[in-house]
Design goal:
InterPro entries: J_dom_sf. It comes from Trabulsiella odontotermitis. This is DNA repair protein. Keywords: Chaperone, Coiled coil. The chain is mainly alpha-helical. Among the domains are: 70 residues, no CATH class; 69 residues. Helix content is 83%, strand content 0%. The protein contains 13 helices and no strands.
């Protein structure tokens, strides 16, 4: 009931100031915040410009409520409002950070899909060449400390090849799922994912709900990777309508807890700003954000990788190593 009291006090002061705009701005909120028939009559009187009758009713109603309403430290309301503003700021920063990361991920998947087969062949040939070098040393019985280096080089080449091949396949699978969706569904998936993630991001929620928020974010991210629009819609609906509020500003009413949360989010904002500045300087982001002709870029990379493949094939041939053997 504290909000209607405060709104009626604002309206009473606005009547004294003869300010219609302030009165009009409060009426929609007043209608939605209570079902008290007395307030309904006050609203009607205000809408019909019967200000004398309205102010008398306001004063009588306020007097009746003051004996019933517990006093609340105004610092709590101020702190909650400050926290809401900080949460919104942090939400915007997280959204911008996530949008950049998503853009990088999309480019990386495109890169892996377009150039992955060539890069996989480069790594395979390097693996073969490392094996050839080791076999040659073994055949010559030239076993010394360098042999350990050769074995390590062979093992690293194998690991790089297997890891990249797995990553390339995952990227291809993601691209395939994206291409199987209509353009409108792809945009809808991104939009709903961003909307849902703002409501349950672990950096934003009350500390008591972080575990639940982590779980929901994991579900959202997995659904996004699968291109599962139905699941994302369901999670968003749950967050919007069928789920308890998760943001700290909606849950906390203790001044000391609110103040600690304000300080915590201020630190998170500072950290995220630093992260964004670092990301803006990374080579991958500079490439993605400045690339004006992706097709020309990929053709250039394809040519370079093809030349590398030819060079490696020549080196293997010159080594006399039989890949089949």
């Amino acid at each position: 009931m504290s909000k209607p009291i405060k709104r009626l006090e604002i309206i009473k002061n606005a009547i004294e100031l003869e300010d219609d705009d302030i009165i009009a701005s409060q009426l929609p909120h007043l209608k939605n915040e209570t079902d008290d028939p007395v307030i309904d009559d006050i609203v009607l009187a205000l809408e019909e410009k019967r200000y004398g009758e309205a102010v008398a009713a306001i004063m009588a109603w306020l007097q009746s409520q003051r004996a019933m309403v517990h006093w609340q430290d105004p610092r709590i309301a101020a702190c909650k409002l400050e926290l809401k503003a900080l949460e919104e700021h942090l939400r915007d920063l997280i959204d911008k950070r996530n949008a950049r990361i998503a853009r990088l991920d999309e480019f990386n998947d495109l890169y892996m899909t377009r150039l992955g087969p060539l890069m996989t062949e480069v790594l395979r040939l390097r693996k073969v060449l490392a094996e050839a070098s080791l076999r040659k040393r073994e055949a010559e019985m030239n076993l010394d400390d360098d042999d350990i280096v050769a074995r390590r080089a062979r093992d690293e080449a194998r690991e790089q090849y297997e890891t990249y091949r797995e990553q390339q396949q995952k990227a291809q699978n993601r691209r395939d799922r994206q291409e199987n969706m209509s353009e409108s569904d792809r945009h809808e998936l991104k939009r709903l994912w961003r909307q849902a993630s703002k409501l349950c991001h672990p950096d934003l929620v009350d500390d008591a709900l972080k575990a639940e928020a982590n779980d929901m974010m994991a579900q959202l991210n997995q659904a996004r990777q699968r291109g599962d629009l139905t699941t994302i819609r369901s999670l968003l609906a749950r967050l919007q309508h069928g789920h308890q509020p998760m943001l700290a500003s909606d849950r906390l009413n203790d001044l000391s807890l609110l103040q600690r949360k304000v300080a915590s989010i201020q630190q998170q904002i500072a950290s995220l700003n630093t992260e964004m500045l670092t990301l803006a300087k990374e080579k991958s982001w500079l490439l993605v954000s400045t690339l004006t002709n992706p097709e020309a870029y990929f053709r250039q990379q394809e040519k370079a990788l093809s030349n590398t493949i030819a060079t490696l094939q020549k080196q293997i041939l010159e080594s006399g190593f039989d890949e089949v053997a």
